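re: ur question from yesterday

yeah so i grabbed the chain u mentioned. its 406 aa long if i counted rite. heres the sequnce exactly as i have it in my notes:
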Amino acid sequence: MSDSYDCDIIIVGGGIVGLATAFVLSRFPGVRLAVIEAEQTIAAHQTGNNSGVIHSGLYYRPGSLKATNCVNGRRLLLEFCQQHHIDYEQCGKLVVATHRDELPALNELERRGRLNGLSGIKRLNQAQLNEYEPHVAGIDGLLVPETGIVDFVAVAKKFAELLKKTGHQVHTQQAFKGLQRRSNGLIIRTTQGEFQAKYLINCAGLQSDRVARSCGLRSNLRIVPFRGEYYQLKPEKRYLVRNLIYPVPDPKFPFLGVHFTRMVNGKVEAGPNAVLAFRREGYRKADFSAKDTFETFSFPGFWHLAAKYWRTGIGEFYRSFRKGAFVKALQKLMPAITASDLTDGGAGVRAQALTADGKLIDDFHILQHPQMIHVLNAPSPAATASISIGETIAALAKKNFNLIPT
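ran it thru and got these structure tokens back, copy pasting raw so excuse formatting
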């Protein structure tokens, strides 16, 4: 292998985290970058199958990577959208308690939000809730003004456009297949050929644990896919939701519960549930992969998780196949909703990292390996925090990679 490289750093994964990381690294003078994405288009999976919510930082433990990156990332994201004329709206949201036993968790959310530096948080009684959302049912709630909406695919495409304009590479239909170490670099094999690089950054999302294992990293984490299914309000029923309406989440789970989301295109989504997916890119109920399913069911962590939460899991599957059960969950927040108000929407798959003892990893999880950085858990609010995550990874790269211009 000669010292002539295709790039200095190769980023595996063309979702918003990988592209934002490349965007931040492109500021390093002389550093040559290549992003490889397995699909035909960038942002094909988690980035392109979410509701487009710009999270405020309300939910996350103060001092955690999620909290610091979300708050900083929201500011950077809004600046980026303003600079590049990407439509967004800081519309705010309500978090609604429907029962008194939810009030302690609501109090904790308010405490976290204030500690995380959110401005304008306001506690609302039932009458005040209805001033903001006339059709919502709740006994107490929080107004969170700094929450917003955006098209994250548009943001990802702008990252890719800027990378190409500055001479960097963005390749689609280039799935990572393996890696060979040489004394002075790496050879990265893809479905379309080989790249020569000095360093690798793994932002492969649903495939991140497999990429890491192929690179020689030994970790007790496994990606377990959870599908979130949505309905949409019919156009004539969109008036029921002005902005964003969320329940008080169950603190035992890293999911936010079924909620209502007005999107930048004017549509209103209702959902999601959270069901185990039998394919890592399984957006339909019938999607199945023997390999993916075997990896899930052969992982001890899954069985530890199932033993603890099997009742919840059965309930989620029941709601997946019974529209009436889904509607009943939505009616806790909005009693006026009926099954006839809803049409089938899309679905997303969350790449949830799980430990061998069954612990759901809630925070961002980034590991370093010689000549490599692996992002092994980047759940919501990763899209909101993408530029900040990119800055975190770039700081690690600056410290551990030799980024001297060539």
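noticed a couple things. Residues 93-144 form one domain. also The chain has three domains: 1-89+146-220+361-406, 93-144, 224-241+251-355.
anyway ttyl
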